[in-house]
Design goal:
Blueprint lengths: L1 H23 L2 H53 L2 H46 L2 H19 L1
Helix pairs in contact: 1-2, 1-3, 2-3, 3-4
């Protein structure tokens, strides 16, 4: 979350520098602002991709643990091995609970994206930055999609 806030702040600061530089006729300031904004956007895309990869990995691990736990439970019940059945039930329950936590994190992450997108659109309006407005709309839509999946 701290990285997201830092990247977002740098995007806004960069956009402001770019706008001020363009408005007041300071091309170096405008270029520096554009660079800062672009670097922050790229850093956030990289951070988002890493987070998505981690979520997918956790989901795969949870699914595998749930399936293995369910299989242990079924085999234990079928063969009358109560210890194996209990171990399987516990493994399955733990994996299912961990997946619910991952799903909740995805909901929060989606809500963050929605809010971030709305803020970017407003900042884009204030600075007359079309690319930030478009990025904001895209970010908001991404958040909505994450919350609905």
């Amino acid at each position: 979350m701290t990285e997201r806030l830092s990247n977002t702040a740098n995007q806004y600061i960069g956009a402001a520098k770019q706008t001020i530089g363009q408005t007041l006729g300071y091309p170096d300031m405008a270029a520096d602002g554009a660079r800062q904004k672009s670097e922050a956007e790229t850093a956030q895309k990289v951070a988002d991709a890493k987070a998505q990869a981690e979520r997918l990995q956790h989901t795969a691990e949870n699914s595998a643990n749930s399936a293995v736990g369910g299989a242990k439970q079924a085999v234990g019940q079928t063969l009358g091995l109560s210890g194996l059945a209990a171990e399987g039930a516990a493994q399955k329950s733990s994996a299912d609970t961990q997946q619910k936590v991952e799903d909740a994190r995805a909901q929060v992450h989606g809500a963050e994206h929605e809010l971030e997108g709305k803020i970017k659109q407003k900042v884009g309006d204030l600075t007359n930055d079309q690319s930030m407005k478009v990025d904001g709309a895209t970010t908001e839509a991404q958040g909505t999609l994450q919350r609905n999946v």
